[in-house]
Design a protein that fits this description.
The chain is mainly α and 107 residues long. It contains three helices and no strands. The longest helix has 55 residues, at 32-86.
């Protein structure tokens, strides 16, 4: 009880509560320079993350493109094999060359 009297007794009689301090909103604010440096480091981190995500996405797209190209080549090969069953080999080669020319003209 002597510690309470040294600090002074509370008027409302709630001596068991810890004494409160004055509200000072500017007491723990950071300086402008420290805020700017923190923002710069956050921006650098974000740009690095964006760059890493872009690299990862580009690698993913490259893999997907490779898979699609292989599938298309396999499909085309199967189509020509099916044609070769019905037609002569030389005619299939002619059709293949013509289709390749048309594909180049379209692109």
């Amino acid at each position: 009880m002597s510690a309470l009297t040294a600090l002074s007794l509370r008027k409302n009689g709630k001596q068991w509560h810890t004494p409160r301090n004055a509200f000072r909103p500017t007491s723990n604010l950071t300086s402008y320079a420290s805020r700017i440096s923190a923002q710069k480091s956050a921006a650098a981190t974000k740009s690095k993350e964006r760059e890493m995500k872009a690299d990862k996405e580009e690698e993913r797209q490259r893999r997907i493109r490779g898979i699609k190209d292989r599938r298309a080549a396999k499909e085309e090969k199967e189509r020509y094999e099916k044609m070769a069953e019905r037609m002569h080999r030389k005619r299939v080669e002619r059709v293949r060359r013509r289709e390749k020319r048309n594909k180049l003209l379209k692109s």
